[in-house]
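Dear colleague,

As promised, here are the two records you asked about, laid out in our usual form so they can be pasted straight into your sheet.

NAME FIELD: protein one
SEQUENCE, THEN STRUCTURE:
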Amino acid sequence: MISLVYRWSNKILSLIKPVYDELSNAVTNIKIVVASYFEHSNEASKILVNTPIWALALDFIYGEKNIESLDFIKNSNKTLIAGVIDGRNIWKSDFKKKIDLLEKISKHINKDKLIISTTCSLLHVPFSLKYEDHLSKEIKSWLAFACEKLNELSLVSKDFFDIQLNLDEISIIKRNLEDNIQRKTSSKIHNLEIQNEIKNLKLFERADKFNDRIKIQREFFNYDYLTTTTIGSFPQTPEIRENRKKFKENSISKEEYEKEIKNYIDDCILFQEEIGLDVLVHGEPERNDMVEYFGEMLDGFAFTQNAWVQSYGSRCVKPPLIYGDINRANPMTVDWIKYAQGKTSKVVKGMLTGPITILNWSFVRDDIKRSEVAKQIALAIAKEVDDLQKHGIKMIQVDEAAFKEGYPLRIENIKEYERWAVDNFKLSVSLAAIDTQIHTHMCYSEFNDIIKTIEEMDADVISIETARSGNRLLRIFKEVAYKQEVGPGIYDIHSPRIPSVEEMVNQIKALLEVLPKEQLWINPDCGLKTRKWPEVKQSLINMVEAVNIIKKAEKH
């Protein structure tokens, strides 16, 4: 249970014993195992050992402090299921380190009371490496998916419990040692140029303060209030997906592929102009995924064919693998955004994915700190921001859709995560000039507990999902006297329903009860790539009309 690893109040902790006493006494012929993972659960474990449960399953990889619970587990005579094979990440175990960890545990827990396990369910990693024949042999030798982790578990258990190994198993253990040594020294992983660039960084945030920036930006972009835009993506049609697939399979030429992308952008820009949107986007037809697209153009990333994992519900994703130092050798978005801007006199936003979202939606290397990986990604994004503005793209959105997803489970660790996450977002936009307006977007979040962190990110404009909450989520921005501009989503893009003009007028009026019109942007609450064109078109037409009604009423 993830809930057991939180740092609960004594009042909540006092409920654990009666619950597990009752569960244990309800049926006498069942052994109850209580499993916690992703952190230590020492406070709960101390209570659980005084209930009739049979065993505790603890995560010793992400919950290193679980070692502090070993003595009172031993004294309770409970069985310990020790999670030592990483169930969350895809890197091959170092058998020697696993045995050393188990030996440390066994100094407290007798071996007859010890079972070896993965740290959690294997739901979080792909099924098997045997379906991956496009990965380089070297990178593949560093990986272990679910099936491979079960084999690791068997071998580590046999080795630890002194069960005789056959020749094949001995060979696998020897190869494991060789693969781990080779990974540490591989030239694929280490880029000294990037490491030195990171060490010598001098600029970590924008030089100008928001109050100075926004005056110049409003004059530069010539917008007044309730400025309309979208979050970035437009529908990924079957035709666009097929075009991308054919190009990857080399069944069409680069020229044919790019012609289709340009046609889509042409139509997208024309539609936005026709309905009267203020700030346009190119629609992102060239992008397969908001993380994978960037990873494919950065050194240090690898991609699988079939390594799908469940995201939520029935939705699955295929996360990139960050295996080495990250470098941006060439611009990633400039040509497409320049093309779109050349089709209109209106402003076209450049669209980038932020470093924390790329980090949180990838399988991340485990040989350096996550904060250092984020810094390398941030530096790459900073270079892209600079190239965009040098080519005349002066409004740039750096999405941090997954910023909240990286939060630690225990409250004492939150400040450290927020510190480096904010620092790396600020690094990613640090080269933006005073007249370059930086937008960001956040999804699926309650903002009350992180509003100060959002302020510290210092984006000029933040768009957020609020359509399903009326103006409730927005009120915290008023309470803290938030200075930057805000684009609260006024309709829910997760539904195919087309909101009426009247509904949107009422939604905007509710927003105006909270924040002044000059501070508000009007947009859908997220990207539109999962929707169909007919619903997108009518919803956006209604959105622009609703804004025009509000503005017209203001003038009378």
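NAME FIELD: protein two
SEQUENCE, THEN STRUCTURE:
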Amino acid sequence: MSSYSLEQAASLRNKVIAMFFMIIIVPFLLFAYYAHIKSVEGISNANASFSMDYMLQSKKNMDRYLNQLNEQINGIIGNPKFQLLMEQSMTPKRDESSFISGMMLLLDQSKSQVDAFRVRVFPIKPYDHPMYINTLDEQKGFENSSWFKAAQKTVTPTWHLFMPEESTYFRPMLSKIKRFTGLHDQIPRGIVITDLTEDQLKPYLSPSKRLEGQRMFLLTRSGYVLYDSADNEQAGKLIRSKPLVESIAGSTQKAETLTIDGEKQLVTYVRLDTEPWMLVSTTPLEQLTHPIQEMDKVLVLFLIIYLICCIGVVIYITLYFTHPLHRLVRSMRKLESGEFQFVLPPSVRRDEIGWLYRGFNNMTGKIQQLLEQTTQAERTKKELEFQVLSHQINPHFLYNTLESIRWKAEYHNMTDISEMVSSLGNLLRLSLNQGKEITTVSREIEQVKAYVRIEQARLGSQVRFLISIDEEVLHAPFLRLLLQPLVENAIHHGIRSNPDRGKIMLTGRREGLDIVIELNDNGQGIPETVLQELTLPEAKDAPAGSGGGAAVATKRRGVGLRNVNDRLKLYFGDAYTLQIESRAGVGTRIVLRHPIMEPQEERA
């Protein structure tokens, strides 16, 4: 448990609430719960005993009916006229019409002999008797069904629940299927099917009608519903209670409380003797506890009134005493975590709590003023630093360019001076960017191209400079004067000594929420001392002497990269710095990451 949770548990408000519940409410609730449980237990036991007696009687009646039905079916099979008809039906020269009329007459007579909805008789090979099958008005293709094929192969009677979609009857129908042979041989003659509807099963499988919601089921041992007293609602489905299925799989009779369809019910079940079926009775537990509901209502009403009075006292103490203190504690925790932009509601109380509120608000107000002053000073300092870093690049490059123009005009008198001046004008225009710090990637590329044209004129040879920028980032907002210093560094310190073989490649793409610009050259590489200098705070000017000149040269060589790196950090944070990979004699790879900026993020 955290320290904050322990402190909350030890607060005055929680102690008062806990005292009321532990001393007054909890004992009353325990007594009421114990009385209710014992009442429900007594009523459930009494009903379980009565239900078990009723189920045992229903079991005897159902077993007696199934035995009687089996004898009635055997009586039909043993009828000599029936056997003669079935024997003649198997001869090649049979009279189909005579067989149909004789069989229909026997089946009509069996209605008074068999306590069932109907009796159906099928030859062992139905496709040899198409006229007879059409007379029965059976569904087409029944001879290919699994239940019929199984009946053809076994002499053991089976049961099958015919649902409306697989029979011509509109209600679920439980049928006994039995293959029979001749009386004096073992040759299969046919299959007799005895159909039982809910009208035949209802007299034996009806609930006691004592309680509303009581139901009876006829289930297999796996929980498959053969009959449901509630209008056969669940017939052909698994009973919706996994605990009940597990219980009937391991016991022959039992009474217990289980959950069915999300409702607690008193369940009583017994196993039949004649078939491996379970006779199950379910009664909602709510109906059993109905006699004690009136007493529970009075008890609940009294408890509600009692709770309201107790809660009223707790609310009064909480609102007037502990809640103001708790709010003050939360505010102090916010203050400790560095959150100062809030005030407590004004208090007109003249007691100690009121004095605490007013003193706390005065203190937070003074802290906010000091923080605002500090923030403004820091912002002003960073803006000044940014301006200084931004303007360190322009004079140096401008002087070099003007000197190159003068040198070209004085010594070579070449006509490309106008081109250099034009490129310089474009370069200065793009660099100044109307005083705005944010430009676009495409304008930065134009500035780099102008700079490269000037350098080509200065060097007197073409610099192989390749640009590949994805179209989707060309018009994205971009901090100005980031790419030109990188290209300048690549030309002056990378390929200047061998411009004919040197090559610079500038690529740009989008990665997630960033623009990634990558600059590669095959020049001399950046010395390790310069790379280390880029990661350290800028050193002060070295003193005059033998070592000062080398330090100044190193510093000047890395000024462009350092300025770009520092501007990225000042503007976007430490996560956006240059990534430099360089090997002597192989070349340099510089990766610049710049966040995707929305138009409203652009700052002048």
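A couple of things worth noting about protein two: The chain has 18 helices and 16 strands. Confidence is low (pLDDT under 50) at residues 538-555.

Best,
R.
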